[in-house]
Amino acid sequence: MWALLVLIGAASVSAHLQDLSFDGQKVFRVIPQNDEQVEILNFLASIMEVDFWQPDSVTLVRPKMQVDFRIEAEKSFDVEDLLKESGMEYQVLIDNLQAALDAQFDSKARTASHNYEKYNDWDTIAAWTAGIAAQNPDLVSRSVIGETYEGRPMYLLKMGKSGPNKKAIFMDCGFHAREWISPAFCQWFVKEAVETYGKDTVMTTLLDKLDFYVLPVVNIDGYIYTWTNDRMWRKTRSKNAGSICIGTDPNRNFDAGWCTTGASNSPCAATYCGSAPESEKETKALADFIREHLSTIKAYLTIHSYSQLLLFPYSYTYSLPSDYQELNSIASAASKELASLYNTKYTYGPGAKTIYPAAGGSDDWAYDQGIKYSFTFELRDTGRYGFLLPESQIKPTCEETLLAVKYIANYVLEHLY
User: Fold this and answer.
1) Which uninterrupted H or E stretch holds 17?
2) Which helix (H) or strand (E) covers residue 412, if one does?
3) What is the CATH number of the domain that holds 322?
4) Structural domain of residue 51, as residue ranges?
5) 3-state class of 388 per DSSP?
6) Is 378 a catalytic residue?
7) 200-238: b or e for each residue (b if 16 or more CB lie within 10 Å)?
């Protein structure tokens, strides 16, 4: 078997995804049963380009863990042979990534304009933020909280009826560039708020009594890059001193156990923590805004994909937060709400214990700033489509997630501190 590995490795010097057609690329799911099988995956990752989808780094792989990863076309048969020979349990989740990529765009609404049931590119989203604020001046306002590495404005929408001393909930989407369902949810949430205000009693009460800050896309440069160059890009697009590798993982870039566990100090890694906490202009802008509004922001919600999880602190340590009981019961009830619509099952709990340890995340950081109600959503699915969730699932995904978000927001309103 090791001879096979060496052969695969020898052929592996080809440049990474130059043509960026994903034709013939495969996504495998394996469940290593023991340390030796984990070691095989580590070796594989050391000799070729392996894009880990779940968990997001080979360093986090443990026996009995479900592992999803992507392999370039010309290596996929070798890898499959290797998995067979090692006796590792595996399945091919996606047989041809290009076909899955094309199949994402299955929405009937193929308009050039903004549409809530399809994936919108950044220019469309940016124009939408201006439009929704202009059309709903008594409910929505738009501001710029900073700019990205490539100089784009980071638009923030503030939603709610104006009133004295209002507390707020901060929600962001689009941390990781390839998680397209995430920005789709932020847009959906804003749409639901403006359309159901005055009709839906819960939403009306929420907007009367709370403000919502919604950052539709955190990692704008990366998001654009997934539309123009590489659909599978994850990080920011900043240059790294002394390296040809681009970008930092913005969700490993916060000052919460920074770069201690589940994050890499190698600029080429998908989970690169950056040169320092808040080294990225995007994370710094977000953190600065929250610090400036700490007296009013009472909840922090960050939306990711995929795996159907509702997580709360901590991810950078196995220690439980002091508010564990309360956060766990909220997550339990919110997951139940979410499942009530389409029976979508979510797993919930503290990040490190529920999935794997990961330092430098925005939810842990927000919690440590004193924002008690801090949650991370990992939206659909559990791997059948992974990051390439078809547009036909945007509506059901957003509808069910909205139920959980409204539940949490209502809970926060009733338990202000």
Assistant:
1) none
2) helix 394-414
3) 3.40.630.10
4) 26-103
5) coil
6) yes
7) eeebeebbebbbbbbbbbbbbbbbbbbbeebbbbbbbbb
Please give the tally of structural domains in the chain: 2
State residue 20's pLDDT score: 67
Last residue of a domain, one of 103, 132, 152: 103
Q: Are residues 185 and 305 in the same domain?
A: yes
- Of the residues 278, 337, 378, 391, only one is catalytic, namely 378
Whether the CB-CB separation of 116 and 192 falls below 8 Å is answered with no
Q: For residue 14, name the pLDDT band (cuts at 50, 70, 90).
A: very low
Tokens of 383: 């791997």
Confidence of residue 292 (pLDDT cuts 50, 70, 90): very high
pLDDT at 19 over 50: no
Q: Quick check: is 5 in a domain?
A: no
Q: 203 pLDDT exceeds 80?
A: yes
What's the pTM value of the predicted model, to 2 decimals? 0.94
Per the structure block, which two tokens stand in for 15?
A: 């440049």
Q: How many Å apart are CA 298 and CA 51, to the nearest integer?
A: 36
Q: How far apart are CA 245 and CA 275, in angstroms?
A: 13
CB within 8 Å of 414: residues ≥ 6 apart: none
Dist CA 272 CA 32 (whole Å): 25
Q: Closest Cα to residue 167, out of 208, 204, 225? A: 208
In this predicted structure, the answer to whether residue 227 has a pLDDT above a threshold of 80 is: yes
CB 32 within 8 A of CB 38: yes
* Beta strand extents in 306-372 (DSSP E only): 309-312, 347-350
**Strands, E assignment, 79-152:** 89-94, 140-147
